[in-house]
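Re: that backbone. Tokens:
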């Protein structure tokens, strides 16, 4: 027995020591962030960057188990005139925290591609000529508590699966605030203000976007729709979002977007319709529209097989509900103080069911 224990002890002693995580400091250990990245070993090394502006385009290529972060309480700016200030590619288990990224005239602010299990937290992006944050063909990426301002294209462009955008702020993006395509993504608690096009877009250009949750986001201002579901956006849930003061429709669901659930959303003061609906098999319940510049709900002739339950439209400039769809059910909805009719069923709509609605005025 003693011999056995001795042999086991000797075998353990001869095994190589487990690799230890290192903390690498910039500029104390390496003068540039890229030099520090190149020196990492892939065992949860931490690169801690002290305050200053770093004029470089940092690339995390084929890196695993790495944290890149600003030293606590210090302002760290990465500025690049030749490409994205920070790119993560073909990497896994990457954490990026509290960095300020100043984009170039030619690229993204932060570019994450072909990677998995990436966390970006507490970062800010300004001045990118393309997207502020671009996430492309990745899995399980989380972008949280980040700020994106004054970028030319989309604030955050997510083309990924199983990823999460949480508590970010996007302001003054030239195109869309947040654009999402892919499977099983979550867009939660973000704030989007004054973007050049749409606030949140799912499935733009017909790209497959399925099983996503868009919940408790705030969209204020913008030159187009607050939330837009394009063809290819199927089986998504749009829940408890707030849209205010957009220049077109509060929420639009395009033709070809099917089986989506839109519930308990609030739209206030859009210049167009509160909801513009062209889809099949949509479910709309307990949504509230106030002061729409046109109709509260415009249910177009290409919409069909939809359910409208306990929605409210108040003080719409035109009709509370203008209904041209077919084979849809309208149950316990309310419209009041509409400029024209509280409900206007048009001749193109056939075989719709109306049950226990509260419409003060109904057009012929």
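Recovered sequence:
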């Amino acid at each position: 027995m003693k011999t056995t224990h001795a042999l086991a002890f000797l075998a353990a002693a001869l095994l190589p020591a487990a690799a230890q995580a290192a903390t690498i400091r910039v500029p104390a250990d390496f003068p540039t962030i890229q030099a520090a990245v190149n020196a990492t070993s892939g065992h949860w090394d931490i690169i801690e960057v002290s305050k200053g502006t770093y004029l470089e385009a940092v690339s995390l290529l084929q890196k695993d188990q790495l944290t890149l972060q600003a030293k606590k309480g210090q302002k760290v700016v990465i500025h690049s005139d030749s490409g994205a200030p920070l790119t993560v590619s073909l990497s896994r288990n990457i954490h990026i925290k509290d960095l300020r990224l100043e984009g170039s005239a030619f690229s993204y602010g932060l570019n994450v591609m072909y990677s998995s299990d990436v966390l970006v937290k507490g970062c800010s992006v300004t001045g990118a000529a393309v997207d502020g944050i671009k996430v492309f063909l990745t899995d399980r990426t989380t972008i949280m508590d980040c700020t994106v301002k004054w970028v030319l294209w989309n604030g955050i462009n997510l083309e990924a699966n199983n990823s999460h955008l949480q508590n970010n702020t996007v302001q003054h993006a030239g195109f869309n605030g947040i654009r999402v395509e892919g499977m099983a993504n979550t867009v939660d608690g973000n704030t989007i203000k004054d973007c050049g096009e749409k606030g949140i877009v799912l499935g733009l250009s017909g790209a497959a976007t399925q099983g996503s949750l868009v919940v408790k986001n705030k969209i204020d201002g913008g030159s187009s729709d607050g939330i837009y579901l394009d063809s290819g956006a199927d089986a998504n849930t749009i829940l408890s979002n707030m849209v205010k003061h957009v220049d077109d429709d509060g929420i639009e669901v395009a033709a070809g977007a099917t089986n989506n659930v839109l519930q308990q959303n609030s739209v206030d003061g859009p210049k167009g319709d509160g909801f513009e609906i062209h889809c099949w098999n949509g479910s709309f319940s307990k949504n509230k529209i106030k002061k729409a510049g046109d109709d509260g709900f415009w249910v177009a002739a290409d919409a069909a097989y939809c359910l409208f339950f306990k929605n409210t439209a108040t003080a719409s400039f035109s009709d509370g509900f203008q209904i041209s769809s077919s084979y849809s059910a309208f149950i316990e909805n309310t419209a009041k103080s509409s400029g024209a009719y509280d409900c206007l069923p048009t001749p193109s709509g056939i075989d719709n069911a109306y049950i226990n609605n509260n419409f003060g005025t109904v057009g012929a």
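Helices lie at 2-14, 33-38. The longest strand covers residues 133-144.
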